[in-house]
């Protein structure tokens, strides 16, 4: 009789230990799943917020700094071109920008940080077409610059922002 009690007590201990192991395993698995979900959700939210911030900042730069300088900068012999170059160089120097390109609706480059690009006709990305046609601001992350080829050493990607820009008296 004493053997039966020990045997059943041993099974009860095993049963409690087994339930405890299962409980801890499920708890750890749940914590891992919740943590992974939180990290993914946080990254997605942070990326969205960063892109919206880049859109706002670039639109503000285009509206307040670049657009007022463009009409005079496009006139031949104008000193405003130096002011435009200086304003953009400041943003390049502080690291916010790596490239500025302004096109007309045909894809002809009206302004570029690389003077050799000016006058070239490029195939416009869909985002640039939407910015011109529908006044849509858009942004995205890309591994390589979409319009101007090449890469920047150490760059892990680019944030491209396309903003509509209405220029009066632009060259034709």
Give an overview in words.
- It is built from three helices and four strands, in the order ααββαββ.
- With 172 residues, it is mainly alpha-helical.
- The strands form two sheets. The chain has a two-stranded antiparallel sheet with strand order 1-2. It has a two-stranded antiparallel sheet with strand order 3-4.
- A hairpin with a 5-residue loop joins strand 1 (101-103) and strand 2 (109-112).
- Helix 1 (2-74) packs antiparallel against helix 2 (80-93).
- It is elongated, with a radius of gyration of 30 Å.
What's the average pLDDT?
Answer: 81
What pattern of helices and strands is seen along the backbone? HHEEHEE
Sum up the overall morphology in one term. elongated
Integer-rounded radius of gyration: 30 Å
Structural class: mainly alpha
Helix fraction? 55-70%
> Percent of residues in beta strands?
5-15%
Counted beta strands? 4
For the record, give the distance between the C-alpha atoms at the N and C termini, rounded to a whole number: 106 Å
Residue windows where pLDDT falls under 50 for at least 5 positions: 149-154
Q: Report the biggest beta sheet as strand number plus sense, adding barrel if it closes.
A: 2 strands, antiparallel
* Strand order in the sheet with the most strands: 1-2
Total helical segments:
3
Give a short summary of the structure:
The protein has 172 residues and is mostly helical. Helices cover 56% and strands 10% of the residues.
